[in-house]
Amino acid sequence: MSADKARRVIDQIRGRSYEETLMILELMPYRAGYPIFKLVYSAAANASYTMASNEANLVISKAEVNEGTTVKKFKPRARGRSYPIKRTTCHITIVLKDISLDDSESIELNLLKKPRWKKNSTAMAYYDLHNRGGLWDKK
């Protein structure tokens, strides 16, 4: 299925709870609903098995669709001609979050990360070249 058709379904379930998502996907009239239903169901099973979390506490925190490879084929037509057929694919990413966990745990994890410092090296190099008499390399 194409990325646009999958995005139409993904936009409806982003930020919703696991149980509400399953109800929406079961009743959605689009063909992309069933593969996404299977993906969400599998992601919840993985989360409940690996993190020992309850499925009722799961929320879809991130859902995105990226374009995949395009399968190119040719369909034979009359008088030796052929028409190109392009079948687009997509990559679907679903991230579930357990809302029963304390927010303090996530804050502690964020504090342990190294801070990202802004680099102003380009402005400094430009200043040094003009004020200190530096020359550009002429090649």
UniProtKB/TrEMBL annotation:
GO cellular component: a single term: chloroplast
Pfam families given in the database record: Ribosomal_L22
GO molecular function: rRNA binding; structural constituent of ribosome
SUPFAM superfamilies: Ribosomal protein L22
A GO biological process held by the record: translation
Annotated localization: Plastid, Chloroplast
Keyword line: Chloroplast, Plastid, Ribonucleoprotein, Ribosomal protein, RNA-binding, rRNA-binding
The UniProt record lists the keyword Oxidoreductase: no
Cross-referenced CDD domains: Ribosomal_L22
Keyword Chloroplast among record annotations: yes
Classification via InterPro entries: Ribosomal_uL22, Ribosomal_uL22_bac/chlpt-type, Ribosomal_uL22_bac/org-type, Ribosomal_uL22_CS, Ribosomal_uL22_sf
Function of the molecule: This protein binds specifically to 23S rRNA. The globular domain of the protein is located near the polypeptide exit tunnel on the outside of the subunit, while an extended beta-hairpin is found that lines the wall of the exit tunnel in the center of the 70S ribosome.
Family classification: Belongs to the universal ribosomal protein uL22 family.
Subunit structure: Part of the 50S ribosomal subunit.
Protein name, as recorded: Large ribosomal subunit protein uL22c
